[in-house]
Amino acid sequence: MTGFVVRRIGFYTFVAVVLAFFALPLLWLVTAPFTDTPTYEVKVPDFTPANFQAIVEHPYALGSLVNSIILAVGTAALVVLFASLAAYALSRVRLPGRDALLYALLLLSSIITGTAAMVPLFQLAVTVGLIDSQLGLILILTGGLLPAAIFMLKDFMDSTPKSYEESARVFGASPLQIVGHIVVPLVRPGLATIAVWALANVWGNFLMPYLLLSDVEKQPAAVIMYTLYTEGGQPNLRLLSTFGLLYSIPVVLMYLFVSKKYGFRFHGGIKR
Amino acid sequence: MAAIELRGLTKVYPGGVTALDSLDLVIPDGEFFALLGPSGCGKTTLLRTIAGLETATAGSIRIGDRDVTGLQPGARDVAMVFQDYALFPHMDVTDNIAYPLRIKKVARAVRAQKAREVGERLGLEKLMDRRPGQLSGGQQQRVALARVMATQAQAFLFDEPLSNLDARLRLEARTFLKKLQRELGVTTVFVTHDQAEALAMADRMAVMENGHIRQIGTPAEVFQRPANTFVASFIGSTPMNLLDGVVRGDTLEVAGCRVPVPETAAGRLADGEKIVYGVRPEYLSYAAEGPIAGKVVLVESLGASYLVTLEVGEDLVQVTVPEGREPELGEAGCAVPRPDRALVYRDGELV
Amino acid sequence: MSTDAAGLGRVRASAFVAPALILIAVFLVFPALWVVLLGVTNYRLTGLAAADPEFVGLDNFVSALTDGRFLDSTWLTVQFVLGSAVIGQAILGFTLAKVLHGRVKRFVEGLVILAWILPSAVVSFLWIALLDRDSGTLNTLLGIPGFPWLLDHPMLSIIVFNTWRGTAFSMMLYGAALGNVPPSHLESARLAGANGWQQLRDVIFPHIRGHILTNLLLISLWTFNDFTPFLLTAGGPDGKSEILAVHVYKVALQGGELGYGAAVSTVILLINLVVAVFYLRLLREQR
Ligand SMILES: Nc1ncnc2c1ncn2[C@@H]1O[C@H](COP(=O)(O)OP(=O)(O)OP(=O)(O)O)[C@@H](O)[C@H]1O
Ligand SMILES: [Mg+2]
Prior knowledge:
heterotrimer, B: alpha+beta, CATH 2.40.50.140, 2 domains, 8 helices, C: mainly alpha, MetI-like fold, 14 helices, 0% strand, binds adenosine-5'-triphosphate
């Protein structure tokens, strides 16, 4: 009996500590934006809209959110398009060297990271004039995400039965018709997963835009966060906290949407 | 509608498996033709090669007056029902049935009209807005048939279309399919590994083994006069008795007994020749006196009749006995063959 | 071949694969090869060597491997990976997956996942606020205003930070793995009188060994290549939290020594390669 009580107390203490550990850092994000002249301190907010006003008036803040959207949507669209074409062909046609290619893709996706490749990517961008180009950055980000995306999508395509396509083929559908009428609708959940994964990845990416975009007009929110300083060189907490909140809301919404629609299925290695 | 003609058709898979070995087969226009054989004998491969989903390694395929060997599946003018039906899960019944017409660029309104007509003919009118996932197995099967009908193809190819149905539905679907094929008169090739299905439905049938056709004929021919011991042992709900024997003058010595040479083989056997004597349990009767004498070792119920196993020397002989006349276990009894139904095989082939 | 269900044919299939392969080749493979090549030059961002880089052989590698700063940085990275990934994320993630259930579980999981999905620029700032010496929440709670966490304990700070940040992945992976342990095995162990620890050791761990391996190797790779700590401490003070990812950035892009930076990057690539191949081997043995 007492053992049970002790264990219950232990369990709830553990839960309380974990809750505190994970919740404490987040408190500031939900209080400071609504506080007049916030400090690092967590205070009961006075619900002023002034900080949001300041963000609206900031020359780059809202523009950077738009930039983030351009980068994330552009990259996700390219990743989904190219990865699905490649994954479909690799899943359905035994191209020469296919298995070696897949193995190489798997390796590439895990070993070549922004950290290891930052120097040459920077140089490459400078050399071919892709520095300060959003399109260039989108292509670079796409190249980085493609191997893992192809790998995950191929798994998905392998598990959809081939008889649908064969059936359409006997009815006389051309390969492109088969892809458009049959394959894309069938693997739509897989495409959505990859799209969300790519969106989240680019939305949070700091290093690549930080290296490759120096024009503030083009920088995404992740980089603009680090320019929100006062004239005195101190972090401008009003802008920082409010902007951080605005910048976070889309990913939270996307997470809620995904977990509701697809039950947040677990895909090993989906985020890095 | 068109006849299907296969000449020397061979299919070797990349792994080296020879799934079809130089097959010759002619299926006349309008025939309902069944392909039967054990698992892995190449039935599906044959069907897929006719459809063009597999390219033939050698040989030719003609449908009607065209050589289609090198054509894409869509250009061969055949329609196929897959074992899992392959109904597109993201389209409703109307769109599924109309899909072949969509490929032929028929206008949307015309397609819907045509799909409704075909659907009504198969009793699907209340289900036209449902997705395949919301249909029972029998309903899905009918949608698959409707889709095939909508193509107005020269030939239908069915790969075990009934095997996903439960026993009762399967009987219903059998009758339905047969009736439909009669009405449409489309040449139909039907794969099954349920021999009752083949015997009941087909105009003619082929029994395959290891990429070869072992016998072609009407169901009655195949059942009554299997051309070789493989077909003999494969066809029939109870396997045929196949007993080793030797020719002794105008009798056969089988399992230590003497039986008369069957009518079918009279005058074609040489004295002292080794043969296999075959007779179905249905064509043997059980009596107190008879040429094949033995002891009852097993009595199994088949419902309206009993299957009695006699031990004759070292061999076992099975006899069907009408209900109410079944013998006691251990009783001595005899089997009497019907002379016009007993068969003799030499080197595995019918004499 | 029946796998070509749509009748694509090799030509069209190759056309489907080509755009992806070209992008990967240009923006992933080429940089990786380039980094190896750069590693043997004295290329600099500015100055004389920028115009006319020279071949210097293995000099960069030699100076990296004998440079105290590089070796310190490697040692700090090892601490960072062991502390935050192996000990922090994996153990906390497993514990959460094991002990939580019901409504408590859903609530705690929500928070843990939130820490994982927020952008790194935001969470690093949240931690700067949390750890601020004068008015940060932590010091207020502990009643030690003025304690400079990021200056006095930079490594501890980024290790705890990364544990907070990445536990969600391990928690979800172990959650999925534990769901696959057959209850009958646990029940028979309990009937045999096994206590909690014995059940873990004899039933659960053998069952989820594959998952544990996958998890450890993935989170190690990610943590090893993580740049986010830069946003908290910028490697400081005095290089005391300069893990390899930050080190490369500082020498190559801030210091302008691209050749030397590339040599360090090559070392990172090699370590990644070894870990990844090791991982794929283990995965294959599992099957
Ligand atoms: N894609 C393939 N690649 C290599 N071998 C194959 C392939 N498909 C079938 N085979 C082989 O070809 C032979 C014939 O297979 P098939 O599917 O035609 O048999 P089946 O008569 O339809 O059998 P079942 O009654 O089990 O459906 C088998 O030995 C099979 O292993
Ligand atoms: Mg088959």
